[in-house]
Amino acid sequence: MLMINDLLRHNGSISEYLSSAVTKVIESGWYVLGNEVKEFEREFASYCETNHCVSVANGTDALELALSALDIGEGGKVITVANAGAYSTTAIRAVGAEPAYVDIDIDTMLLDLAHVKKSLNSEISAVVVTHLYGRAAPVEEVIAMADKYNIPVIEDCAQAHGATLNGKRVGSLGAFGCFSFYPTKNLGALGDGGAITTNDPLLAKRTQMLRQYGWQNKYEIALNGGRNSRLDEMQAAILRIKLPHLDSWNQRRLLICQRYTQGIRHPLITLPLFAPGSYVGHLFVVRSQQRDSLRDHLKRNNIMSEIHYPIPDYRQPAFSGQFMGVLLPITERVCNEILTLPCFPEMTNAEIQNVIDTANNWVAA
Length: 365
Ligand SMILES: Cc1ncc(COP(=O)(O)O)c(C=O)c1O
Fold this sequence. Notes:
Elements: H1 7-12, H2 15-28, H3 35-48, E1 52-56, H4 59-69, E2 77-81, H5 87-94, E3 98-102, H6 113-119, E4 126-130, H7 139-147, E5 153-156, E6 164-165, E7 168-169, E8 176-180, E9 194-198, H8 201-210, E10 215-217, E11 220-221, H9 233-242, H10 246-263, E12 284-287, H11 291-300, H12 329-337, E13 338-341, H13 349-360
Helix pairs in contact: 2-9, 3-9, 4-5, 4-8, 10-13
The structure holds pyridoxal-5'-phosphate.
């Protein structure tokens, strides 16, 4: 069975190096906020071309701590999309604020600039721009619009490590870039992990304090709203081994996406836009009105697929009562049509061709 993401093959390709990094940490006797974390933060900030990186426990915490550092809480309203797995919604609700959902563009499946423009007003506290599926969203345009109201923009880069926009890395453009190092991400740990990037020393300091109880010094809480959200030394050491490979892994992902784009030809399958540079091939997401039939066909041929994501945030059962009036037509349509095909750097050329041939042979039920 071909998985959409084969972590055993991915991490197996560098397992010797990962093992020695873990051994080094074990033998160091220091496991939380030590040298590995400090060095990883320095290296990741440099990779993202930002002045600061503050590592945290996961990507959702990165978003939550970014909002907290900007003093967004009770009564706040944060613009976000509803097709990106509810991570931003979770973070916004965790600080006591409310999501203000905007619809997406049908071709890119990223936030729709016209809708953002209509939704911006002086009651909005922040905008979260999600770079989804490895595709950089038009964050510079959002920043230009939000600046008129003095509203900060947070980039959610959890699915776009290494993507660039006009030569600048995602995560270096907004007030904050928020990253996840969940194992399946383009840069993934062997467990949970996350980071915040910023060019603002004050925001970096606030985030650093918030990730550790609000401490200014050990046992001295100087900032309200602090948490425990730290990246541990093992994960930092693992990420340091993997970071130098990120660009070549992204290249391979792009090549896979390019082959799919050139090879898949089916009247019932709409391919995603292919735009190298601003795209790092995190997930290859096609659309079809008969998505479930395509999914069954792939599965019968030993090819797994996935739906990222099936339920718009405002329809999630736990809080749908709160968003009764919200209905975003493009988001609704996309959630019903999308299907993610396998894409990971270790996929062989034969496997890529098999996915293409199998998709092209599909006869809709
Ligand atoms: C777009 C997006 N934002 C945020 C997150 C949250 O990251 P984590 O799972 O590390 O909390 C994820 C990943 O799962 C994601 O895909």
